[in-house]
Amino acid sequence: MKTKLITFLEIIQPVYAAPMFFSVVAGAPPLWASWIIAGAPWLAYVLLSERFIRPTPFDIPIGIFFLGLVVGFAVSPDKRVSTEALSTTFACILIYYGLVNNTDRGRTYWRVMSGIGCLLILGLTAWFFSQGSGRVMFFNDWVFKLAADLPKTSGEILQFNNLGVFLAVMAPVFFALGLFTKGRTRRLGWSAGLFLMAAVFLSASGSGWGAIACGVMFVLAAWRLKTLWATVPVAVVTGIVIAVNYHSFSWPSTLFSTNSLMYRVELWRKTFALPEWSWFTGLGLGDWSPHLGNNVNVHNGYIQLYSDTGLLGILALVAAAVVFVRVSLRIMKSRARGAWNCIGIGLIGGFLGGAAASIFEVATYGTFWSPDMHYISIPLLWIMAAIFVVADSRLRAKSL
Predict the structure, then answer these.
(1) Is there a contact between 56 and 389 (Cβ–Cβ < 8 Å)?
(2) Is the peptide bond before 233 cis (omega within 30 degrees of 0)?
(3) How many angstroms separate the CA atoms of 339 and 324, rounded?
(4) What letter does residue 76 receive in the DSSP assignment?
């Protein structure tokens, strides 16, 4: 009985912290209640199993990052906003360790998790296009019209760059499955990968286009290095064609607006020039908005990280990058083959695409007003990192 209870508590660990997101987005349950809902099962699990978390390669970067969050919370003048950010980031960390704790689960468990992930992708895509409030261009107006009869939602709308980057970092995983596997898995991989590529294209997100190009180019190179002889020239020629025709058509200047770029550069400059800026603490967790005219974010994931968590956050990023390179090389060199190897390679491509997009976008936190500002951590990066660690662990176990 005790063993079954421990197993059950471990299996459902990834969802313990879900109420924290509902507390911020929907206003219920109260945030304090969500902490209890998330913490009580973990405490029961620790007491029964006499273990807390499975050690992972990212433990030290996560520890440094959490210290940065605490510092950012301490210096933030708006404790309501910073409390929501701290709580949802803590929830993301719990999701990360909840998934990693289930590393050794069987195929059924991970198929269920994959199915849930695919349903979320489909749901977000349908939600975005059904609202009809994205960037409408000559090549995507038909899909907005097609989805016009779907139910509408009130409140905040998913922004096209958020959707584009989200789908773009997922696509390389499916393309890797399509390239490296056989049979039904290959067909599913290609089908899902092409669907995501089409959705990113139709989102009209310049950042999404760039991210998926980086990720897919990496996966192709991992499959056959000589594909770089084709993909690099295609990317260069595409860039030249867009530049040459920048003012000949309306869509290039809309998708890759120089005015938008200059706006971002000015926003970055203003952020660093704020008198409240500290080289060690940044501005404080979620404290940039009051100083910058209620902007959604600073449109740079790295500056946003520095603003929120200061120097400790940057140190955590550097440490995580070192770990990422080490684990990536281990996955690429692994003699074990199969789905987990494909997933690992695809995730490397997704991380690289996301890193490129983060120069111009912030995909780790979301901001919305209803009517007050709310700042919420997005769990996508943490879920990807957890699956990345699981893939590495499974491959190492196979290689022994």
Answers:
(1) yes
(2) no
(3) 20
(4) -
Cα-based distances in Å from 286 to 35, 159, 163, 228 = 20, 19, 22, 41
Rounded to whole angstroms, the Cα distance separating 376 from 370 reads 13
Helix axes 228-244, 206-223, angle to 10 degrees: 160
Q: Quote the pTM value.
A: 0.95
Q: Give the tens place of pLDDT for each residue, 307-366.
A: 999 999 999 999 999 999 999 999 999 887 889 999 999 999 999 999 999 999 998 988
Domains held by the chain: number: 1
Per-residue pLDDT at 184 exceeds 70: yes
pLDDT for the residue 295: 64
User: Which residue do the tokens 């922004």 mark?
Assistant: 159
Tokens coding 38 = 């998330």
Would residue 46 count as lying in a domain?
no
Distances (CA, A) of 14 to 167, 211, 387: 21, 27, 12
Residues of the domain holding 234: 106-399
Which stretches of 204-338 are DSSP H helices? 206-223, 228-244, 250-255, 258-273, 301-333
CA 61 to mean position of chain CA atoms: 17
Residue for token pair 């890759």: 256
Q: Are 160 and 128 in contact (CB under 8 A)?
A: yes
Q: C-alpha angle with apex 382: 295 to 4, nearest 5 degrees?
A: 140
Single-letter amino acid, residue 258: T
Task: Give the model's confidence band at 293: pLDDT under 50 very low, under 70 low, under 90 confident, else very high.
Answer: low
Q: Are 363 and 305 in contact (CB under 8 A)?
A: no
The Cα 152–Cα 99 span in angstroms is 33
* Structural domain contains residue 267: yes
Q: The tokens of 361 are what?
A: 């976008």
In a domain, residue 40? The reply is no
Report residue 164 CA to chain centroid gap. 11
Residue 163 lies in a domain: yes
**Phi/psi of residue 369, nearest 5 degrees:** -120, 135
- Cα separation, 314 vs 349, in Å, equals 22
